[in-house]
Amino acid sequence: MLDTAHPPLVPHGGNLGYAVRRYGIAREHWIDLSTGINPRGYPVPAIDPQAWLRLPDDDDGLEDIAAQHYGASRALAVAGTQAAIRMLPAILPAGPIGVGLLTYGEYAPAFAQAGFRVERFVTEVLADSGAQADFVLEPRRALPTHLKHLVIVNPNNPGTELFEPEVLLGWHRQLAARGGTLIVDEAFVEAVPGFSVASQVDVEGLIVLRSIGKFFGMAGARAGFVLASASVDRAMRHARGPWTVAGPARAAVRAALLDGGWQRETRTYLAEASARLASRLTQHGLSVRHTPFFAWVCDADAERRQDALARHGVWVRRFDVVPGLRFGLPADELAWDKLDAALRAACDKENAR
């Protein structure tokens, strides 16, 4: 059971300060691969100085631009999808909700703190991993009959599972018939847009969350969007309140969403870089699955290997619920070389035994 009175802080990547303190290596000597953020983010143009002086304009057309970009009827701007996750329990009817055991860690505590019964699932690829879960999620089988809601991160972070839209919409139909909801977190789908279900959100019982931080490399902007039916949009708009996305962030996000040429070039770059990362990890004897943003290594020795990499100035994210490591993309050739040297030290000696 989750402690809803004093829930622990959920660990996340990007905690390089912790690594600096633990290993005594100056920040400038690290390469931080602990997040799945595009290391070649959008080149934000100069921001009008007036954006710092005025209250954010919630009627500046940004939401219309986002809706058009995502192919949805409407979009609600929020201060990162993390803000939306905290709002969701207040607008959904009570009932058991399925959340992946190996997935983005903020969903389970958000719903548990609101009194929902959270049931953890594993996908087929983890069914034989020994992880303790309440059920196995399989595309060809019906959802548990008592389940009211389901959260799917697609592609999954960090497990990399990717579900076809037809599968997601099939789960939605099952849940909607019970008065429930399918929540699809598409934080990493921008690189593979054909897997998005954003265009289907006019139906009740389907909510899609989209992030600016990952594909556009603008995590510091704290901006994202909720795509949903008119009734859910109204409820979340009321819960959100005004001025939740800062004016300078709105200007930067607007420019990024309108730059189709940069988006096309970036999809190509991410596909090539992630294939290179997967190949590099495989060469060092690791078993790899990957998305365009990161690679996942299921590794029973994850704690020792993370430590070995860190001692060579490479910081990666470790997961314990299913032991493994997530590797983000190196930003430049110096980072690639440093990763290769650290992998030789952390993996090759062991493989030679």
Automatic annotation (TrEMBL):
InterPro entries listed in its UniProt record: Aminotransferase_I/II_large, CobD, NHTrfase_class1_PyrdxlP-BS, PyrdxlP-dep_Trfase, PyrdxlP-dep_Trfase_major, PyrdxlP-dep_Trfase_small
A GO MF term: threonine-phosphate decarboxylase activity
Domain Aminotransferase class I/classII large: 67-327
GO BP annotation list: cobalamin biosynthetic process
One Pfam family, short name: Aminotran_1_2
Keywords: Cobalamin biosynthesis, Lyase, Pyridoxal phosphate
Enzyme Commission numbers on file: 4.1.1.81
Cofactor: pyridoxal 5'-phosphate
Catalytic activity: O-phospho-L-threonine + H(+) = (R)-1-aminopropan-2-yl phosphate + CO2
Pathway: Cofactor biosynthesis; adenosylcobalamin biosynthesis
Any coiled-coil regions, as ranges: none
PANTHER family (alphabetical): HISTIDINOL-PHOSPHATE AMINOTRANSFERASE-RELATED, THREONINE-PHOSPHATE DECARBOXYLASE
Function: Decarboxylates L-threonine-O-3-phosphate to yield (R)-1-amino-2-propanol O-2-phosphate, the precursor for the linkage between the nucleotide loop and the corrin ring in cobalamin.
Protein name: threonine-phosphate decarboxylase
Lineage: Bacteria, Pseudomonadati, Pseudomonadota, Betaproteobacteria, Burkholderiales
